[in-house]
Amino acid sequence: MILCTKKCADKTPLKAVQRIRNWMTDADGAVTVDWVVLTATMAVIGGVIVAMTVDGTTDVGNQIGTVLADKPVN
Fold first, then answer.
1. Three-state DSSP class for 6?
2. pLDDT surpassing 60 at residue 15
3. Residue whose C-alpha is closest to residue 35's, from 43, 47, 26
4. How many other C-beta atoms can be found within 10 angstroms of the C-beta atom of residue 71?
5. Tens digits of per-residue pLDDT, 26-73?
6. What are the structural domain ranges in the chain?
7. CA geometry: angle 24, 35, 19, nearest 5 deg
């Protein structure tokens, strides 16, 4: 077993508040978080656009299907 000297005692674990403060100010991984947020935002925007246009595109598709069904094939 290694006995702790004064140098060893100086390297004691940080207090919980200091650890949280260090974690909040640490910049490692910030770019990854930015990309995750931007990707999630774009996915939500895409979903909103699809939800807003699905009724109109379904109606147009049904109208095209009706017109094509009435045309004779030679």
1. helix
2. yes
3. 43
4. 7
5. 777 778 889 999 999 999 999 999 999 998 898 999 999 999 998 888
6. 31-69
7. 15
Convert 7-28 to b/e letters by CB count within 10 Å (16 or more is b). eeeeeeeeeeeeeeeeeeeeee
Would you state the structure tokens that stand for residue 38, as one six-digit string?
Answer: 């931007």
Amino acid at 61: G
Q: Three-class SS of residue 15?
A: coil
User: What is the rounded distance in angstroms from the CA atom of residue 37 to the CA atom of residue 43?
Assistant: 10
Nearest to 49 by CA among 41, 61, 38: 41
CB 8 within 8 A of CB 16: no
Residue type, 57: T
Token code pair at residue 44: 């939500």
Distance of CA 18 to the CA centre of its chain: 29
